[in-house]
Amino acid sequence: MPRFRDFPGQRGDHVRSRHERLPRLSKSATVKGNTFIDSAAFAFDPSVFVQNNLFINMIDPLVLIDAFPANGQAPTGIPQRNSFLLKNDSPNVNRLVIESHGTYNASTGHSLDFSNNFWGVTDNMTIPSRMLDSTDTANPRLHNVILYAPPPQSPDPATPAAPQSAVPNV
């Protein structure tokens, strides 16, 4: 099971925005069954499959970018069955897990289904605070809505188990 740390050259670059400096996954890529601990995030488009991964104490949130499918079709690769766990010692002080950006018609909002991801908590106040989407009034340019309810009560059995299971999630 690979364990990833920071991607070289990605930190401290203040010229570009956060999602422009993150490693960007190729279209239709698959990221499955990995464990990411204290890791930098990555940017991906709606065709990328991010499934059954364990993310613990992400340094930056995942960033959904680029064009959405035409004709109102649903995105094909939205993250599914991942575990997003944040501990008290997380370097991610904002506790963000996902940001939804995109180059698309700003008058057309998209609903992105993240309901099959385990957030380490199940309350309806904490989970939305881990997302930046159109419901965040401080970011009116984000026109997507990330749907998370109902959150699963436990991780998907195919997702790697958390090695820090005795440390509570916050």
Report on the architecture of this protein.
With 170 residues, this protein is mostly beta strands. The chain has one domain (1-170). It is built from 1 helix and 12 strands, in the order E-H-E-E-E-E-E-E-E-E-E-E-E. A 4-stranded parallel beta sheet has the order 1-3-6-8, with no helix packed on it. The longest helix is centred in the N-terminal third of the chain and has 4 residues, at 18-21.
Secondary-structure blueprint of this entry?
Layout: E1 3-4, H1 18-21, E2 30-32, E3 35-37, E4 43-44, E5 49-51, E6 54-56, E7 62-64, E8 83-85, E9 98-100, E10 111-113, E11 131-132, E12 145-147
Parallel strand pairs: 1-3, 2-5, 3-6, 4-7, 6-8, 7-9, 9-11, 10-12
**Average pLDDT reading:** 75
List low-pLDDT spans.
1-19
The helix-and-strand class reads mainly beta
N-to-C span: 25 Å
Number of strands: 12
What kind of oligomer do you see? single chain
Approximate helicity band: under 10%
Largest sheet: number of strands, sense, barrel closure: 4 strands, parallel
Strand order of the largest sheet: 1-3-6-8
What percentage of amino acids are in beta strands? 15-25%
Total separate domains: 1
Annotation field: number of helices: 1
Order of helices and strands: EHEEEEEEEEEEE
Q: What Rg is obtained from the alpha carbons, in whole angstroms?
A: 15 Å
Tertiary shape: globular
